[in-house]
Write a structure and sequence with these properties.
Order of helices and strands: HEEEE
Distance between the termini: 34 Å
Largest sheet: 4 strands, mixed
Number of strands: 4
Strand content: 25-35%
């Protein structure tokens, strides 16, 4: 998990600049540690420019995009 953590830290700022991205974290998918990218809503890749697409992996670490909607503070 150390490599995933390092890669996440190295690319978090870049991922946060992508359309609809509201968070980046470390998580699991299919028993593997992945970089989770949270978005307000998923958009078909065909509607995005190539530089706007979350890569399937970064430096050998898999990514997983989760649609979570708009986050608001709860009081």
């Amino acid at each position: 998990m150390n490599k995933v953590n390092t890669v996440k830290q190295d690319y978090e700022e870049q991922l946060m600049r992508l359309p609809n991205v509201i968070g980046v974290a470390i998580g699991e998918k299919g028993g593997k540690t992945v970089i989770k990218v949270f978005v307000t809503h998923k958009v078909p890749e065909s509607d995005l420019q190539p530089q706007e697409v979350v890569p399937k992996s970064i430096e050998g670490c898999a990514t997983d995009v989760d649609e979570i909607g708009t986050v608001t503070a709860q009081i």
